[in-house]
Amino acid sequence: MIPSPGNPTGVVLSEAELDELLEICRRHGLFFICDEVYREFVYDVPLGQRAPSVLSRPDPDNLAIVIDSVSKRYSACGARVGCLVTRNTAVRDAAVRFGQARLSPATVDQYAGMAALDTPQSYFDAVVSEYSSRRDVLVSGLADIGIDVDKPSGAFYLAVALPVEDATAFSQWMVSEFTLDGESLCVTPLEGFYRTQGLGRNEIRMAYVLEQDILRRCTKILGAALQEWQSRGA
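RESULT FIELD:
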């Protein structure tokens, strides 16, 4: 199971990479479940272009399964409405049976999800353009405090390596003890996203879902917090 565009890195898999993963699945008798919930949110490509989908790749054994949701695409966090898409009839039949045995999402969420399908492309173009600008603001602001990161190609997250040994301890300290002019910053430690123990210990995830001026302020707060943290010898 792989997300593309990815959370927390913003990586977008190419068609060649999707083909390679499908081949690995064929060799080992595995399904390829791809979370494509952020597929509209791709940058540095023409507006309206989506991330490559595994369902568009050659798949004679019907191993590809796409999962999707309305929550990210329409900024409807908490609306537990999504879908599973596959050409594999056995998987589809099993999913239907499982769905019939479970509780359904709230009725109002289902109606809202259906109405959202009529959203014009112009909405997505404006949202993607704004997220692209926010990404650039955040990357630039991090560079100003001495932190260089690769620009993510999609979604709205950024993986950031900090000059600290323990990003979890640093993050907890920021929200519990540190302020700059009465403000602090909440980030997500990245260690929990890794399968290999010990990786990501000095990394955080930042989400560029706030307005550009707020993101500029966030990088200033982060820079000041890092200076104070390091002065404490932490």
